[in-house]
Amino acid sequence: MPVHSQTISGNVRQDEVLNKKSIVIDSNTQKPIKGAKIYMPNYNFNTTTDSNGSFQLNAQIEDRAILQIEKEGYRPFSITVDKSITTRPLKLGIQKLNSSDVYTEAGVFHLGDDVYSENSANCMQFRAKPIGAYYSKEVSLKGYNSSKEAVIVFGSVIGLDTKLAKELGQNSIVSVYSSPVEIIFNGQKIGELNMNGDNQQIVIPSMLIKEKNQLTVKTGKNIFQHNYTDYDDMEFANLRIELRDKVFANK
User: Fold this and answer.
1) pTM score, two decimals?
2) Domain interval for residue 72
């Protein structure tokens, strides 16, 4: 009986068992990709896909963590995995870089003060060195056409202890929670991150876009702590901005 599968490429979906090995393919051609680099910083694990695009995840996974894929000419890709990957390997589709990708920041970034409860979401999986309460970079959008929609995409997010994350069972903290992560563009708040997960997207209002722009990601605070500022520790991976055709609703 043939085994049918679905590919994970940006949106997270269920997948098949492929002889205990996961595989990386081109999202468009569906062909396997040789030489793609696989990283799990949380477990100090790295490997490379073979000639069949396959790789074996030899890591003792205990909690949700970020798996990253890098291949020259392709968008950096990340997905949040858990120990089920060892029994249910993945088929991962990655996309080639194109002219719509106007900003890409590969890698994992840790925001916060490096002080957190053991019940915090995925806290035992933090491995990146903290860079402080916020990430801020200058982003060039020279030649931006207002007929396009600029979208910020977070490949993966772990560690959020917001009210929504708590309600979704993403952490084990009993009585407190943090404010959401704020996304700030040219000094204006344009969105929030309230939950852990992959492929989270925020549209940039076109009236805020200039040739040179400042993008800031600011972590939340424990809203029940008043004696000092207690920042929520979190990590995100593979941040990018891409331009898309606008979709207009039918009137």
Assistant:
1) 0.79
2) 22-94
